[in-house]
UniProtKB/TrEMBL annotation:
InterPro entries: ABC_transp_unknown. Residues 449-679 form the ABC-type uncharacterised transport system domain. Keywords: Membrane, Transmembrane, Transmembrane helix. This is Gldg family protein. The chain crosses the membrane at residues 12-37, 74-92, 113-134, 146-167, 174-194, 228-247, 259-279, 731-749. PANTHER family: ABC TRANSPORTER PERMEASE. It comes from Sphingobacterium tenebrionis. The keyword Transmembrane applies. It holds the Pfam family ABC_transp_aux.
Length: 755
């Protein structure tokens, strides 16, 4: 050990007697500082503009533009310059022969030289840690542990790159050749995953060899034994092959023996690497203070109920526009999207079925057939067309056809199959909430929501403006109830006595209910059934008035109008009441809701035992009630002083009471369009109708419908430093400290020169 330390001290002194080590130190410090202060300045500006901030520690250090992420992106350019001369200069000076003939083993030589680089890495990372000190005093409730593990990731990456550089330096006496060779090998290891992505079997090998993304995983808050094992194995491998090379030079080993020795080491490396990369042998540690990289406690409780083999089968139609997400070249990243749940269900198997079949939006050119289009699509995705299942084969999977033959997955467990869909939004992949919903449905069955039909009510069969298909039955809509654990069941109003679901929706009937049907609805109310009642002032108000009165409410005559220069006056822009916020309907500041042709709701004296919460209320500063009919295409409606009266009335209410020891939830809306396709797709006003609707339906969810994946919010949301303080810190970190490093370097190099 003494000899190793002595060699390390000598190498470290040689390292710092070279300007390269000092220059790299300054560059790393400055580059990290520029990224750090750029983000700090940007976030402080957002705070001054009264914009909400979140997970500031992660924003500052991780993500796409964080300090650690920026440094990781460029580290591979610097390390070859640092390691290129470690052995090369020994060859040039001839001192390598003295080393080989001295009473020092090859292991001691290699470990001593490598230790000097490790110490240099420790110094470099320690200096970068000064930015963590700045962040500690700049961010309220900074996530200290998250930053410390991010520094560990940088340290491991530098050590790994250095081990590779050490080996490449041992191969040549030319330092430039060593640097370029190291750079080339690092580039290969960073992009190895891409090179083998298309080929089954080879994909797993190149993915494991790839260093790209491993440090980022730790930097972004998830430390795994797989990543630690990778870094240690790569470091160990390159140190061992370096030692082996020196030993072989001393002993004059034959080429064939050398080759076999290197191959044996490589096989051992890949074998251990494969074992340590398996989910069942992987340990995880979430370094974030809110455990953001771990599924919720509720999600974990669901996963713990899976007590046998379970599969997630992905069906890929090569003609589908989403097919590329699960194509061979993207298979590794596709699997990675489910690791968070696979971590808690290690027996989960992931299978892929690739086929070709018709899709609703398929278009054929005049000179191509369905078959030629399919062959062309398969070729573009890098898939052998001969291995695809045909439309005839796919008849064995009718559930896939019900999903329009788009990219869909099915959980298979104990003979049951439940879909897990992809979505038409910026995230595309299902998140924990959707996965939880599918698993709960798999285990317990769906939460059935009844939708009254037969009287012209709003339906889910098409995407017409007034229908409810987006919210209730949108297959590719993340917030749709069918993706949140629900099953929508159409009901006749007279058949509610046998209905055992979680609630019913009564929305804007075009015909009156018969006495028998009304009595059926009344009995449902009396036994504590949950209801969503949505009426329209110009159609269904009279038909739903008896039901409203049964609930202690009354729909008011007229249509509410709101002064506006930009919109039709019958389009209300509303805000949630303080009462609503106290009841869990809390969103961002200034969040708007939209009601089109709405009417007021009048609470009657007899509340029928319900407690009442007004969710939305018109503002009497700009709203009035228009009695009678009107046509905005023929006549512009304006508020008439002396004739019209400003009103502040409820437009949406929540009712709650206990029936037989169980909570009964009732939601009443004075606008049937509130959750319609048209409103959820509205583009001219940024409304939160869909968010509120989702929260409202989740209020009645029972155990079967729970998809809770909510976690505590990160506390690091305030920047304590002000602009003046940030500018002072920038002066210290980006000028004074680099100058001090440079002055120290000049002093050390001059002393060396004099000696």
């Amino acid at each position: 050990m003494r000899k190793i330390i002595k060699i390390a001290r000598l190498e470290l002194s040689i390292l710092f007697y070279s300007p390269i080590a000092w220059i790299i130190l300054v560059i790393l410090f400055l580059q990290g500082g520029l990224a750090y202060f750029d983000m700090l300045y940007s976030q402080e500006t957002q705070q001054q503009l009264d914009r909400d901030l979140s997970v500031l520690t992660r924003v500052m250090f991780a993500g796409e533009k964080g300090m650690f992420s920026t440094l990781i992106e460029y580290l591979y350019l610097y390390i070859p310059l640092l390691t290129m001369g470690i052995f090369s200069r020994e060859y040039v000076s001839g001192s390598i022969k003295l080393l080989q003939s001295s009473p020092v083993t090859a292991t001691q030589i290699v470990l001593g030289k490598y230790l000097s680089i490790v110490i240099y890495a420790f110094i470099a990372v320690g200096m970068l840690g000064l930015y963590a000190v700045s962040a500690y005093f700049s961010i309220e409730h900074m996530d200290v542990k998250f930053v410390l593990f991010g520094l560990l990731a940088l340290f491991l990456l530098i050590c790994t790159y250095s081990a590779i550089g050490l080996f490449m330096s041992s191969l040549t006496s030319y330092q430039i050749v060593a640097a370029i060779s190291t750079l080339a090998l690092l580039a290969f290891l960073n992009y190895a995953q891409i090179l083998g992505a298309k080929y089954d079997g080879f994909r797993e090998i190149t993915n494991w060899l790839s260093v790209g993304g491993r440090a980022e995983e730790i930097v972004n808050g998830l430390l795994t034994t797989r990543e630690i094992a990778y870094f240690l194995l790569i470091i160990s491998f390159f140190l061992m092959v370096t030692i082996l090379r020196i030993v072989q030079e001393r002993s004059g080993t034959k080429t064939i023996i050398k080759t076999l020795q290197y191959m044996a080491l490589a096989v051992v490396l890949l074998g251990i690497g494969y074992i340590t990369s398996l989910i069942r042998f992987t340990g995880y540690y979430d370094t974030t203070q809110i455990k953001d990289r771990t599924i919720s406690a509720y999600g974990q409780s669901i996963a713990s109920r899976i007590d046998g083999p379970i599969k997630l089968v992905t069906y890929i139609n090569v003609l589908d526009r989403r097919a590329e997400y699960a194509s061979p070249k993207n298979r590794i990243s596709d699997l990675a999207n489910f690791e968070s749940i696979n971590r808690f269900i290690p027996q989960l198997e992931m299978d892929y079925v690739v086929y070709y079949d018709s899709i609703p939006y398929l278009k054929l050119d005049s000179n191509e057939t369905f078959l030629s289009k399919s062959e062309k699509a398969a070729d573009a995705l890098g898939i052998n067309f001969k291995k695809l299942l045909t439309p005839e084969d796919m008849k064995k999977f009718p559930e896939v056809a019900l999903e329009n033959n788009t990219l869909v997955r099915f959980f298979e467990y104990k003979g049951k199959r439940v879909p897990l869909r992809m979505f038409d939004d910026m995230f595309v992949y299902p998140k924990e909430g959707e996965i939880n919903a599918s698993l709960v449905r798999l285990l317990d069955g769906p939460a059935v929501l009844g939708l009254l039909s037969g009287k012209g009510e709003r339906g889910i069969d098409n995407y017409g403006n007034g229908e409810y298909s987006i919210l209730l039955n949108g297959q590719t809509v993340r917030g749709s109830l069918i993706n949140r654990g629900y099953e929508i069941q159409k009901l006749n109003a007279s058949s509610l006595d046998d209905f055992k679901g979680v609630g019913i929706v009564i929305a804007d009937p075009r015909e009156p209910y018969t006495t028998e049907e009304l009595n059926s609805i009344f009995r449902y109310i009396e036994r504590g059934g949950n209801i969503y009642l949505l009426a329209d002032p110009q159609g269904s108000k009279e038909y739903l008035q008896p039901i409203a009165e049964k609930l202690g409410l009354k729909f008011m005559d007229g249509t509410l109008m709101q002064d506006s220069e930009d919109y039709d006056v019958d389009l209300l822009r509303l805000y949630l009441t303080p009462e609503a916020e106290e009841n869990g309907f809390l969103y961002y500041k200034g969040a708007k809701l939209v009601m089109n042709k709405a009417m007021g709701i009048e609470p009657l004296t007899d509340n029928k035992g319900f407690s009442r919460v007004v969710l939305m209320r018109s503002d009497d500063k700009d709203t009035w009630n228009k009695l009678g009919t009107y046509d905005l295409n023929l006549k512009k409606e304006v508020f008439m002083e002396g004739k019209d009266v400003r009103v502040s009335v409820p437009t949406a209410m929540k009712l709650l009471r206990k029936v037989n020891g169980k909570d009964q939830h009732v939601f009443v809306f004075g606008d049937a369009d509130f959750i319609s396709n048209a409103e959820l797709n509205r583009f001219n006003i940024n409304s939160i109708n869909s968010l509120v609707a989702g929260r409202i339906f989740n209020t009645i969810r029972d155990r079967k419908a729970q998809v809770g994946a909510e976690k505590d919010k990160a506390p690091d949301v305030i920047i304590k430093s002000r602009r003046k303080s940030i500018n002072t810190q920038k002066l210290i970190y980006l000028l004074i400290i680099p100058v001090l490093i440079a002055v120290t370097a000049v002093v050390v190099l001059k002393r060396r020169k004099r000696k």
